[in-house]
Specification:
Shape: globular
Strand content: 5-15%
Order of helices and strands: HHEHHEHHEHHEHEEEH
Largest sheet: 5 strands, parallel
Radius of gyration: 19 Å
Number of helices: 10
Amino acid sequence: MRYFFLVLLFIGGLALAQDKVPFQDEVADIQKKYDTIWDATKETIVFTGSSSVRLWKNLEEEFPEHQIVNSGFGGSQAHNLLYFSEELILRFKPKKVFIYEGDNDISAKKKPREVIEDIQKIIAKIKQQDKSTEVVLIAAKPSIARWRLRHKYKRLNKKFRRLVALDDSLDFANVWDVMLNGRKLKKDIFIEDGLHMNAKGYALWYTVINEYIN
């Protein structure tokens, strides 16, 4: 009986070991990367969130006068960023944080209210570490693949605006409008999947984000 009980404990422990937290490996890779290149003596600006941040490959080159950390992790939702906020934001003691979340949340049928609740918790953790840290919420973007959800994204962006209006240390980077021609989506700014942007799309983002860097 004792042997049988030990076997059960071993199997249970093995199962738990295999049950990884989502994005654990991706976050570990980001930490490993910045362990070697991040300079703790310099002011840092963190860009984080889902794949639209992660795939901005020349982000650091776009803002050469600043130490930029890109801790985006593809497929993430706001609650994932909240879970890994220490590893992806707080450890860098940033003076400014750009957050892009909500895109995948809405696609996963979450309500805008749920996204806002998680974002507020992330902001609270940032402010708890340093009240002077500025936070810029990047608008949920339109895309070909998720155009059917545009009304929900627009509602989320309205809630972002309302949240920012309550706190002078928060800003809202409206990348939504520059990705449209009037009411129509600019379709030449996306790669083949219709969701992620090409260099032309990121050039549009740069025109908006650059206003909030300094």
